[in-house]
Write a structure and sequence with these properties.
heterotrimer, A alpha+beta (298), B mainly alpha (414), C alpha+beta (369), A: 298 residues, 9 strands, B: Formate dehydrogenase/DMSO reductase fold, two-stranded antiparallel ribbon
């Protein structure tokens, strides 16, 4: 009896250990799996928060470009709303908030269009995809509404239509993919009266951001937010203060889905581990069966 | 062995005061569920853009999967290692697992915004997604569980097919289908049994991978790269306590004598499994130095303490004591604590630990959410009671000759 | 003459930026250079060199009087009827008056080469979707210029404070305020600063003394003002951060702290009390520099009292000091008695007389007052 139990424990331990080994396998090239094609001239937007005047024209234009109820633009001139810390929502893909911390700055928020998006990695059906031009877009025909993208997003961006019984949508900035495919600028970039938003290829914008920091070292905090955060984002931010930990959460430079994907691919490395476990269990089953028949035959 | 224990449909009355209360809870849950389908998730739940997942995922799905672990752990013990002694508990465990996973699927079904697209993961694959892995494995395992349950159906109705009214002309055909099913299953069942265990190991661990992608949104006390391992270990350790608890509950409810000798020896496995889990959990905490968060006295650290001390350490000590393992009350309490511990762990991982960076308020489940969750639990118990009355699930002492079959899952009678 | 000097200086700066090696400015026409590399037009002249504006490595300053610029402008270069907003009527003169205390013309007309004022659109492209992202497009350039002040001035960004609405089909809500001028700036007499310096917390600043007595222009000190500094309800500290910085151009702020820092409010500067010489009666209209040798030190006097105070034959009319010299002394040179032409010191008599004769017990003539 005790002999048997020891054996059992051994096998259980073996299963546990093998799974642990599988889990801890971390293939190094996980990034390549998410992005087969990041174009060299993928686009981005440089947000210069030192220029932003908090007029919220971008919010107004964004609503218009996406078919939301725009309302009277005069209502946007009430800047008291800036003091409310709003988030992008189902009827407002971008918001401008005011942050007061050793000076005041207004910061536009929207999907950052990560280079290695957590939402794309997370989506159970692959309804969210990173397009060649850098935008991260959502496919209404595939989504099952599980909201795992919302759990995954490090910037807390995707919103969900909780009050729709049928066809609720995941809503987030789509980088005006329709407009850009027609050769137009994103609506927010187009309307910004002070060009706080500059649209261009991501590489060129990083150069421009660094040029501005170099030319005005007293004006800018020496960091381009989004250059490396979570593996880089399409939207880049310049500010007079460090935005990380204040306007944005403090995030490392590792890609958001990195660890998760490593584990995932570890467990499912070409289906080897599952098949190995299957074979192991089959072997145990066969062996113990043999023993049993022997015992019975005695 | 004085008596042979043979799986037999229970002939006790279905309705009791307890059952009626459960039925009321179930109906209450279903009413709120109707609200969810008519007016959207937001009208019933406290979920919002900050907290996309609540107790429907944390408890109904994550904890549901963990607590249905009795199915694959007993299958591994009884079938793969051929411990015939535990045959009597395999069928109840299987039924619980089957019902458990059915309600996990139901939980997912009601929680996803577009329930009519629940089949999408079958054809739209994203291998990077932990959720996809969980989804596919759960679907496959659910199928396996239904197949594993089929022998009880064939056993019950083979040779006894009696369809009502004009359908009676199909009696012969249905009977022959059942016969051929039975023959086919007895030859191939081992494939499904192993598959069931493999699939369980996979998705029990992947369920842990789920929250890893939330990264810094998750409290460091829980966020760790070894979450999948911890989930798997905790699933291993909660399997047997769940079976023990069910068996004791069923015995009491149906007025049967508890199969104490089987349960006692089964309970010997719990302490080592729980011990490994505890080592994993505390070891991880020491290596990542997250114990510093325990010095802060707040809701999060309290919940972590409750989870580890009441849910793991106390029952571990209890299962180590022979006196506890030999007394039904002791076993019951210890098992309940393990179950509570794992329940808390899943709740903590999916709800407590999750703190989004721009949260303006914290999440607490709404009455609707709690009602639906309780309703599902009630329904599950009601179905369990119904199934054990229809199908030969629970083994009761019998004088009849016991004929050994290839796979005990098929039961004894031919 | 002076303008030309400045012009050539700027021109040289420009050339040296573009072609650092070229040292001989005069001969640059003979060098093998492409004229169009620096000049836009075919025949550049000194008055209108029509230099290209880019590369713009350094701020180039242009300065005119407000009156020299246009009174009002309509900015309609980027507006069309499809737009939300109509063109802007810009009160140029009013704004240039306001800019006097905040950086002058160059706060808007930055990078302007000498000579003609160039249009903003010369550098700033009208299209937002363009290649060069290093400078804002025209719309942004305009808005940034206006918003910077208007935001701090009005603390909000109402478009209609400058624009008329195209959709409303009404005449511009913005009236051209051509006749409007900047109200006269009230010059404070004295400003009292409460500092946290222990040995004398009060610094009294006599604004009028500094401005009128020393002949300072407002913009000599106030070159970085914004409208809000004066007009906002809560006045910002106009002379900023380190007040010493501003004073230290004339005062030694490293030592002698108690020269400015007093325990109580100081009394205004009085020439009679300080020096014994009452300037109130006859010299009150003079600026310090008219008598004092060096503006900042006020030590010696200039030896040219004679410029004003002379007799008909061109000598110094000593009677004006209150002492009419007698016949002997009137023949002397000033420095015979006033050693080193230092009139603040006591005159010496022992060059000729014995030591018992000295000023003021003995007087070289008679007191007439």
């Amino acid at each position: 009896m005790s002999q048997n139990r020891r054996e059992f424990l051994k096998t259980i331990a073996a299963i546990g250990a093998s799974t642990a080994a599988i889990s801890s396998v971390t293939p190094k090239k996980t990034i390549a799996k998410t992005e087969p094609f990041l174009s060299e001239d993928r686009k981005g937007v440089l947000v210069d928060t030192t220029v932003c005047i908090g007029c919220r024209k971008c919010e107004w234009a964004c609503k218009g470009a996406h078919g939301f109820e725009q309302g009277d633009f005069e209502n946007y001139q009430n800047d008291e709303i800036l003091n409310v810390q709003r988030r992008p929502s189902t009827n407002n893909l971008t918001v401008v908030n005011k942050y007061i911390d050793e000076g005041t700055r207004t910061v536009k928020m929207q999907c950052m269009h990560c280079e290695h998006p957590a939402c794309v990695s997370a989506c159970i059906v692959g309804a969210i995809s990173k397009k060649e031009n850098g935008s991260v877009v959502w496919d209404t025909d595939m989504c099952i509404g599980c909201r795992y993208c919302m759990v995954a997003c490090p910037f807390q961006i995707p919103a969900f239509e909780y009050y729709k019984a049928l066809d609720p949508k995941i809503v987030k900035c789509d980088f005006c993919i329709e407009r850009t495919s027609e050769g137009k600028l994103p609506a927010c970039v187009n309307i910004c009266p002070v060009e706080a938003l500059t649209y261009g290829t991501r590489n060129e914008l990083i150069d421009e951001a660094k040029r501005r920091i170099k030319n005005h070292p007293d004006k800018y905090f020496d960091h381009v937010f989004g250059e490396y955060e979570v593996g880089g984002t399409s939207w880049l931010y310049l500010a007079d203060k460090n935005l990380a930990g204040n306007v944005f959460p403090k995030l490392g430079n590792n890609t958001a889905p990195g660890v998760s994907e490593s584990i995932q691919h570890g467990i499912f490395a070409y289906f080897v581990p599952p098949i190995a476990v299957y074979a192991l269990l089959g072997g145990i089953m066969w062996l113990t069966k043999e023993k049993e028949t022997k015992k019975e035959n005695k | 062995m004085a008596h042979l224990h043979i799986p037999t449909p229970i002939s006790k009355k279905y309705f009791t005061p307890g059952v009626i209360i459960l039925a009321l809870i179930a109906v209450n849950g279903l009413i709120f569920l109707a609200g969810r389908f008519l007016f959207g998730i937001g009208s019933v739940t406290n979920l919002n853009d900050q907290y996309p997942w609540g107790i429907w995922i944390g408890l109904d799905v994550a904890a549901g999967v963990a607590l249905a672990a009795g199915g694959f752990t007993t299958a591994a013990l009884g079938h793969i290692m051929h411990r015939d002694k535990y045959e009597t508990i395999i069928r109840p465990a299987l039924l619980t697992a089957m019902l458990g996973y059915t309600f996990v699927a139901m939980g997912v079904f009601v929680d996803i915004g577009r329930w009519y697209y629940i089949w999408h993961p079958l054809v739209m694959w994203n291998g990077n997604s932990a959720l996809f892995e969980v989804g596919i494995c759960v679907m496959m395992y659910l199928t396996v569980l239904y197949i594993e349950f089929l022998p009880m159906v064939t056993e019950r109705f083979m040779g006894k097919v009696n369809l009502p009214g004009f359908l009676s002309r199909f009696n012969k055909i249905v009977d022959s289908i059942l016969h051929s099913l039975d023959r086919g299953l007895s030859k191939t069942m081992f494939i499904f049994i192993i598959a069931g265990v493999v699939l369980s190991c996979l998705h029990q661990s992947s369920l842990g991978t789920l929250m890893i992608i939330a990264g810094p949104k998750m409290h460091p006390l829980w966020q760790t790269p070894i979450l999948p391992l911890l989930f798997l270990l905790s699933a291993f350790s909660v399997g047997f306590p769940m079976v023990i608890m069910e068996s004791l509950t069923a015995s009491r409810s149906f007025g049967l004598k508890p199969e104490l000798d089987v349960l006692s020896s089964l309970s010997k496995f719990v302490a080592p499994l729980l011990g490994i889990y505890l080592i994993g959990k505390l070891g991880d905490m020491v290596i990542r130095e997250t114990f510093v968060y325990l010095t802060e006295f707040n809701l999060v650290s309290i919940l972590f303490g409750v989870e580890v001390i009441i849910g793991v350490i106390v029952p571990l000590r209890m299962f180590l004591a022979p006196a506890v393992r030999k007394s039904p009350t002791g076993l019951y309490i210890a098992s309940m604590l393990v179950i509570f511990g794992v329940l808390m762990n899943r709740f903590n991982n999916f709800v407590t630990a999750y703190s989004p960076p721009y949260a303006v308020e914290s999440y607490f489940p709404s009455i609707g959410e709690i009602s639906v969750t309780l309703g599902f639990v009630a329904l599950e118990i009601l179905f369990y009671r119904l199934f054990v009355k229809i199908f030969p699930v629970i083994s009761i002492p019998s004088d009849k000759a016991h004929i050994k079959t290839k796979y005990a899952i098929r039961g004894a009678v031919k | 003459m002076r303008i030309q000097y400045i012009f050539s200086l700027i021109f040289f700066a420009f050339i040296s930026v573009s072609y650092g090696q070229i040292e001989n400015l005069k001969t640059h026409t003979q060098m093998n250079l492409d004229c169009k590399k620096c000049h836009i037009c075919d025949t550049p002249t000194k008055a209108n060199p029509c230099l290209i504006l880019c590369p713009r490595n350094k701020l180039k300053v242009v300065r005119h009087l407000p009156e020299e610029g246009p009174e009002n402008l309509t900015i309609d270069k980027i507006s069309s009827d499809e737009d939300l907003y109509g063109p802007v009527n810009f009160t140029h003169k009013l704004h240039s008056e306001m800019s006097l205390m905040s950086g002058g013309c160059s706060i808007c007309h930055h990078f302007n080469p000498p000579g003609k004022i160039v249009k903003c659109s010369h550098c700033h492209e009208t299209a937002r979707d363009r290649k060069d992202k290093t400078k804002p497009d025209l719309k942004a350039a305009f808005h940034r210029q206006c918003m910077d002040c208007h935001k701090s001035w009005e603390e909000k960004t109402e478009c209609e404070s400058c624009h008329s609405l195209n959709s409303k089909k009404i005449e511009s809500t913005v009236k051209i305020k051509a006749e409007k001028v900047h109200p006269e700036v009230k010059i404070p007499q004295r400003v009292i600063y409460e500092t946290d310096y222990d040995e004398g917390s009060v610094v009294t600043y006599f604004h009028n003394d500094h401005s009128s007595l020393f002949n300072l222009e407002c913009s000599d000190c106030h070159d970085q003002e914004s409208c809000a500094n004066c007009h906002a309800e809560i006045r910002l500290e106009s002379i900023k951060a380190d007040p010493h910085e501003r004073c230290s151009t004339c005062h030694d702020t490293e030592n002698n702290c108690n020269k400015c820092h007093k325990s109580e409010i100081a009394r205004p500067f009085d020439h009679k009390i300080k020096t014994g010489f009452d300037i109130a009666t006859y010299h009150s209209d003079l600026s310090c520099a008219e008598c004092h040798k060096t503006q900042n030190k006020f030590s010696g006097l200039k030896p040219d009292c004679v410029v004003c105070h002379s007799t008909s034959d061109g000598y110094f009319n000593h009677s004006i000091t209150g002492i009419k010299l007698d016949e002997t002394h009137v023949e002397f040179y000033c420095e015979n008695c006033h050693q080193d032409k230092d009139y603040s010191r006591k005159p010496i008599c022992n060059e000729c007389h014995d030591d018992d004769i000295s000023f003021p017990t003995s007087i070289p003539g008679e007191r007439i007052k």
